[in-house]
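Re: Re: ligand-bound prediction request (bumping)

Still looking for help on this. To restate: I need the protein modeled with 2-deoxy-2-amino glucitol-6-phosphate bound, output as structure tokens. Inputs repeated here so nobody has to scroll up.
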Amino acid sequence: MCGIIAYTGTKSAAPILMDGLRKLEYRGYDSSGISIINRKRIRTFKAAGKLLVLEDRLPDEIAGACGIGHTRWATHGAPTDINAHPHMDESARISVVHNGIIENASALRKQLENSGIICVSETDTEVLAHLLASHRGPLIDAVRSVLKKVQGTYGLAAIDKDSPGSIVIARNGSPVIIGIGDGEMLAASDMSALARHTREVIHLDDGEVAELTATGFTVTTLDAQPSTKSSSQLTSELEEYDKGGYSHYLHREIHDQDNVVLKTLRGRLDTRFSTAHLGGLNLHARDLLKFKRIKILGCGSAYYAGMAGANMIEELARLPVSAEPAAEFRYRNPIIEAETLYIVVSQSGETFDTLAALREVQRKGGFVLGIVNSVGSTIAREVNGGVYMHAGPEVSVASTKAYTSMLTVFALIALMLGRLRDMSPQRGSAMVHALDELPQHIKDTLQLEDQIEKIAGFMASATSTFYLGRTDAFPVALEGAQKLKEISYIHAEAYPASELKHGPLALISIDTPCLIILPDNELLPKSLSSLEEIRTRGAPTISITDADNEQIDALSDHVIRTPRVDSILKPIISGITLQLLAYHIALKLDRDIDQPRNLAKSVTVE
Ligand code: AGP
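Reply:
Sorry for the wait, this slipped through. Here it is.
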């Protein structure tokens, strides 16, 4: 989604803003722009398309040590030069960049038109620039006053040519983080744009407005009451934000997964009591025992991770667990029970619907744990307790390492809850051992890449594919299909293999490659029947299995044999083969792998 960067200090602002925008590219965007103040004049440059187009439009040097920049992901109005941010008022006194959606923009626009002000763009943001310019006096007062009239969500940054060196930022529903530098201050939508300049950051909360100058900052509420803020340290290293020698972030992130899982597990396996230790839950064993059910909420791949996690917890802790898309949950007036433990899952910690679901549960008195990657993110700060994934920054829009880390956290929670209930020390010990060996098994799985690359050619010409799996393998099929759709744009539909006869079989033909996940378990004979049904209809088949079964080889065009792991961890291993497959198919099709069309990394609007 849109990204904001702002800088005030003593250095030339333009290169810093452009570098920040490059770091924000991964969030997804379709136009960009910057505004710089110098000698009581604001110069604005913007362009539809990639940052290279904007770069081409910039003069060799733009004087000025204070400015704002933006990558826009179109919501109100097409991705054009005019609709790109920053937006200015008619006298070019104010410039503003904004993430989020102003819901009453049409009403505000009408009011402006009635007073003779014509908006030149189709955006909701431009109204903010005109409204801010209609106030005399300090920009921060104007921002507070205008935002009181605004309904909707925003993260914004504004400058006023009459206050050079000062930037006003505000937040309601869309993240803005202050970066505290040495004789300079920055603000950005996420840490990636700040990491090069500072390690000390402050997260603005909803309803807060801040004024930044080169030497300091003040944070207040919309009612001008001072807010007490404390800073935190960036947890990621600068090099974690680059491609590390790979040609795509996605490829690097897939290959990072053995290491990521090692970090997710670090210090959490307890061999003495054959359990897992999860600091930060804010729940004692006796509190955990009171919960009779678990409800997991998330969006997209985080929801699919939740489905896989539900199976893990049910299996090991024998508690009823269900997962639901966060947006669906929050809009159906859910029943919140004191005996249910709610878990929200999010890589970014900023997904709007997941955050809204969390707030809905808390409003009704529920207790919510978070499984979050982004340290200090809004969800991480608002949950009642939680587990950080420690997966490091995930840049590619398609989630891979964060998804695998989510599953690893669920396995830890399942082990911990299982051992609190009736899991034997022997089973607990086997799980601890299996988790300890997981990074090595992931490494071995990544070795299958050459074989998977060859199979990718076989799938790349398809227009429609099916991903099938039963019980534990079904969420894997969903996530595998999602990966293929996201980055290759090939239609992929996931079904429980048991459902084939109830509808989708009508579509199976020689033109629909089918990928089926067949774990070596008691359901293998059933999965084999499904494979046979598909084969009979002439569909090309790829089987993902850890079973040594000749029938699978006889019925499949290709078999990907995965390392054998504990049954609970099989979804993690088979999931990685599907990530590699999607990556190589997208590569063959020459897709924009890290920034797929129409998608954004962090979905901070509904
Ligand atoms: C995954 O590949 C997708 N980009 C998307 O489904 C993502 O998982 C979803 O938007 C949730 O994001 P979050 O984990 O940051 O909340």
